[in-house]
């Protein structure tokens, strides 16, 4: 299971937030439960999650789902893959597209050029060490507005944050794909 157990007592306000997240997801959410050992980390992570981009102009739900799935696969986080790939078809992502996010997206004709660029940039954000070739940055800047650029980068970075934290605590998948 996890590297450490959840605390025997969870502060009341955190417990309310955890129960709300579990009601929304329909799953036992171990990340906030384990983070309850250090309430500041739980609250900070919860606030960040509350302000995640859901849809903003051309950064629609499909694009954001592709970014989250790509980051999850790139950092090889089982919990993140499970959660971020859940119900991908509802966002207009085909099985072929979902499978290609693990490897080669260039041969999938249904991806737009913007989507391919977002996927490539997400892979760069999610790779170690971070290396951003000026040509790639220029392509992203040409295809996305400044606001969209920030949404792309912050969405990928958020998945990376959760991936490192969840894997660092040994949290297994929650069973979204079940």
Low-confidence runs: none
Compute the number of helices. Answer: 9
CATH homology superfamily of the largest domain: AhpD-like
Output the structural class: mainly alpha
The largest sheet is: none
Estimated share of beta-strand residues: under 5%
Oligomeric grouping of the chains: single chain
What name does the CATH topology of the largest domain carry? AhpD-like
The number of distinct structural domains comes to 2
* Integer average pLDDT: 95
> Whole-number radius of gyration?
17 Å
Question: What's the shape?
Answer: globular
Quickly give the CATH architecture of the largest domain.
Up-down Bundle
Tell me roughly what share of residues is in helical segments.
55-70%
Number of strands: 0
Order of helices and strands: HHHHHHHHH
The end-to-end span amounts to: 18 Å
What is the CATH first-level class name of the largest domain? Answer: Mainly Alpha
Quickly describe the structure.
By secondary structure, this protein is an all-alpha fold.
List keywords for this structure.
178 residues, mainly alpha, AhpD-like, 2 domains, 9 helices, globular
Give me the secondary-structure topology:
Elements: H1 12-25, H2 30-35, H3 39-50, H4 61-74, H5 78-85, H6 95-100, H7 113-126, H8 134-143, H9 146-168
Helix pairs in contact: 4-5, 4-7, 4-9, 7-8, 7-9
Descriptive overview:
This protein has helices at residues 12-25, 30-35, 39-50, 61-74, 78-85, 95-100, 113-126, 134-143, 146-168. The chain has two domains: 12-50, no CATH class; 61-168, AhpD-like. By secondary structure, the protein is mainly α. Helix 4 (61-74) runs antiparallel to helix 5, helix 4 (61-74) packs parallel to helix 7 and helix 7 (113-126) crosses helix 8 (134-143). The chain starts with 11 loop residues before the first helix and ends in a 10-residue tail after the last helix. The protein is built from nine helices and no strands.
């Amino acid at each position: 299971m996890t590297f450490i157990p959840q605390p025997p007592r969870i502060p009341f306000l955190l417990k309310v937030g955890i129960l709300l997240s579990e009601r929304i997801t329909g799953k036992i959410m171990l990340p906030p439960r384990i983070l309850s050992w250090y309430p500041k980390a739980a609250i900070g992570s919860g606030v960040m999650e509350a302000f995640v981009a859901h849809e903003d102009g051309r950064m629609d739900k499909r694009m954001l789902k592709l970014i989250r799935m790509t980051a999850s696969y790139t950092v090889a986080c089982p919990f993140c893959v499970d959660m971020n790939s859940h119900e991908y078809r509802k966002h207009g992502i085909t099985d072929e597209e979902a499978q290609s996010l693990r490897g080669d997206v260039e041969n999938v004709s249904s991806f737009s050029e913007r989507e391919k660029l977002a996927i490539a940039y997400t892979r760069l954000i999610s790779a170690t060490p971070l290396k951003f070739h000026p040509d790639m940055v220029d392509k992203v800047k040409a295809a996305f507005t400044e606001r969209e650029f920030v949404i792309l980068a912050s969405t990928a970075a958020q998945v990376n944050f959760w991936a490192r934290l969840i894997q660092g605590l040994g949290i297994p998948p929650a069973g979204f794909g079940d």
